[in-house]
Prior knowledge:
The radius of gyration is 22 Å and the shape is elongated. It starts with 8 loop residues before the first helix and ends in a 17-residue tail after the last helix. It is built from ten helices and no strands. By secondary structure, the chain is an all-alpha fold. It has helices at 9-17, 32-43, 51-68, 84-92, 96-104, 110-117, 123-129, 134-147, 153-164, 170-177. Helix 4 packs across helix 5 (96-104).
Amino acid sequence: xxxxxxxGHRRLHAASRVGLNVIPAIIKPMTNDEAVVAMVDANVQxxxxxxxxxxxxxxxxxxxxxxxGKADDTSRQVGExxxxxxxVGRDANESERQVQRYIRLTELIPQLLDMxxxxxxxxxxxxxxxxxxxxxxxxxxxxxxxxxxTPSLSQAQQIKKMSQEKRCTKDALHALLKITKxxxxxxxxxxxxx
Length: 194
């Protein structure tokens, strides 16, 4: 007796805006986990999707698939179960590693995740930063604001290492982020000159 819309919320809203009271729909009995998988599959097909949306969608789908434990189309060979992360990647046309990197973004504090969405912080450095504690992430935000810098990939990797070694302090972050990377230049010498 209860219906829930899984996919098509934008179409429903558009239909109601133009005065349509009836829309075509497909009604299927689904478990909550099946509904999550269907919803994520529909949403990640949108043309423009923020990295944070993709990250949480992949995480939701991975959790739902882990709960299901079904082997329907997830078998490689007889008796060998395909990893859920592989299925998420295959369905989204992404590699397993890329799916895992997106899911890592869900460990970022909201300010850093917003910076990834607005392209103020690049994706790969953000993934590395996701491994540090939330308190250290907050320190990093403060240092980034004070010094008006964002970490490069190599700096983010160093920050992760500092965190693992329990030496990620505000002073250490200031010192690290003040180092600017010298841009490499390619020199082209024409063949006839050589």
